[in-house]
């Protein structure tokens, strides 16, 4: 029986990998196995606690504070085992990925965020697919008739997903028409400007001096911000920019990175509190 479950799991993981080829995806199995297929990503946040049997294929890496930093970010596969609280799967990445949560089809879902892209059945397993930079899934091993999502709930959920797809398609069509009206010249100018901004920011991140953006991020934490989302909201800077600035401030000793049960937050170092006084 265990052998059949193992073969079924491996077949499902292979099919998920083929569907997600060309984009980053993270497969999380309910017993703690995590398989990440990353495409052109230089960092990966290990989801779950008490990481064991870690394997990284395709590149050398450094492990720092729960993050893997890759030397070669073209095609990387990360495999490991982790512990999750019973009935809870939570995680986050510094960029958008496709999450696949694999649980037995006898389980029921009590909470799912963000809204799922699909819910498929493969043998005796559910494959719940979500897209975003984080996920929160609560489930239980109870029968579907007692609580959670039943058949009617799934029909409603899939109808909502379909409506979201239609609305998203219309918005995408409107956006593409707007870009065509803007003309190729403005697109080219934006591309050049974006490239120059990226080069400038890369140079700023390698220096040991703090510039205006570094100070804005640091000040947000002195004024009560605790997480990456808090700092983005307070500073108004892009999420990727704030993320890089936080890593620079942690490396230089201005901020301390804290982790507990898969949650990450930051605190101002004690020497910075005393110097600000």
UniProtKB/TrEMBL annotation:
<dbReference type="InterPro" id="IPR011991">
    <property type="entry name" value="ArsR-like_HTH"/>
</dbReference>
<dbReference type="InterPro" id="IPR036390">
    <property type="entry name" value="WH_DNA-bd_sf"/>
</dbReference>
<protein>
    <submittedName>
        <fullName>Transcriptional regulator</fullName>
    </submittedName>
</protein>
<keyword id="KW-0472">Membrane</keyword>
<dbReference type="Pfam" id="PF09339">
    <property type="entry name" value="HTH_IclR"/>
</dbReference>
<feature type="domain" description="HTH iclR-type">
    <location>
        <begin position="212"/>
        <end position="255"/>
    </location>
</feature>
<keyword id="KW-0812">Transmembrane</keyword>
<dbReference type="InterPro" id="IPR005471">
    <property type="entry name" value="Tscrpt_reg_IclR_N"/>
</dbReference>
<dbReference type="GO" id="GO:0043565">
    <property type="term" value="F:sequence-specific DNA binding"/>
</dbReference>
<keyword id="KW-1133">Transmembrane helix</keyword>
<feature type="compositionally biased region" description="Acidic residues">
    <location>
        <begin position="195"/>
        <end position="204"/>
    </location>
</feature>
<feature type="transmembrane region" description="Helical">
    <location>
        <begin position="154"/>
        <end position="176"/>
    </location>
</feature>
<dbReference type="GO" id="GO:0006355">
    <property type="term" value="P:regulation of DNA-templated transcription"/>
</dbReference>
<dbReference type="InterPro" id="IPR000485">
    <property type="entry name" value="AsnC-type_HTH_dom"/>
</dbReference>
<feature type="compositionally biased region" description="Low complexity">
    <location>
        <begin position="185"/>
        <end position="194"/>
    </location>
</feature>
<feature type="region of interest" description="Disordered">
    <location>
        <begin position="184"/>
        <end position="209"/>
    </location>
</feature>
<dbReference type="InterPro" id="IPR036388">
    <property type="entry name" value="WH-like_DNA-bd_sf"/>
</dbReference>
């Amino acid at each position: 029986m265990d052998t059949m479950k193992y073969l079924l799991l491996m077949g499902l993981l292979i099919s998920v990998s083929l569907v997600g080829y060309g984009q980053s995806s993270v497969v999380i199995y309910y017993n703690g196995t995590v398989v990440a297929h990353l495409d052109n990503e230089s960092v990966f946040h290990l989801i779950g606690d008490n990481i064991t049997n870690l394997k990284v294929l395709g590149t050398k890496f450094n492990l720092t504070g729960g993050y893997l930093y890759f030397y070669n970010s073209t095609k990387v596969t990360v495999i490991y085992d982790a512990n999750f609280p019973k009935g809870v799967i939570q995680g986050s990445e510094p960029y958008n990925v496709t999450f696949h949560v694999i649980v037995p089809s006898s389980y029921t879902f009590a909470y799912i965020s963000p809204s799922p892209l699909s819910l498929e059945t493969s043998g005796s397993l559910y494959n719940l697919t979500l897209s975003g930079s984080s996920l929160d899934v609560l489930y239980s091993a109870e029968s579907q008739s007692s609580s959670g999502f039943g058949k009617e709930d799934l029909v409603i959920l899939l109808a909502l997903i379909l409506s979201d797809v239609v609305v998203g398609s219309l918005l995408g069509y409107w956006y593409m028409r707007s870009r065509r009206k803007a003309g190729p010249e403005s697109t080219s100018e934006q591309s050049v400007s974006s490239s120059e901004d990226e080069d400038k920011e890369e140079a700023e991140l390698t220096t040991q001096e703090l510039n205006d953006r570094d100070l804005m991020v640091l000040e947000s934490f002195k004024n009560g911000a605790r997480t990456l989302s808090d700092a983005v909201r307070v500073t108004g800077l892009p999420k990727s920019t704030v993320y890089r600035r936080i890593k620079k401030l942690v490396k230089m000793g201005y901020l301390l990175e804290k982790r507990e049960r898969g949650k990450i937050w930051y605190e101002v170092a004690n020497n910075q509190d005393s110097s600000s006084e």
